Amino acid sequence: MSLPSPLLNGLNVEEYKTEFLERFCLRTQFMEVEAGERIPVRFVLDNFNHAFYESVLGGKDNLFSVERASRMPLISTLLENSDSLRFFGKGDKRKGPNLRRCALIHEAYDFVLVLEFRLNKANQIAGRFITCYRMSEPQTLGLIRSNGEWNIHVLRDELNQG
Asked: Contact 11/19 with Cβ under 8 angstroms?
């Protein structure tokens, strides 16, 4: 995958939050799938803290991460590129991978984007942004890969089952 435009640097927390709101929450986003098929993906401002803050010293999402926030443009890069690395989401040990989730990977920046899918009222697949993060541990990519390569057909079957 080609490298994206420069990362988003030099902003303060409120400016990053405004960028997230304007770039993702106020515009319809789409995940390119195959042969021109696109899935709408919804972003909500409530996910900003989970995506761009880190939990430190026993807290929950209590330290803003410029490292994460500067990678915000990679979200668009991953959504728009149907050839990006995509794997099913993390499930539990007993049930296996979560077939309703997709982890999109940008290896050059060790970046992960996590989406969750459902059927909307029109019985069409719709996505929702869950989080994004930098893979800080070398084994993270292997763990994500172990969930299996994401496939739109498997997702459709999963959603149609119920």
From this structure: yes
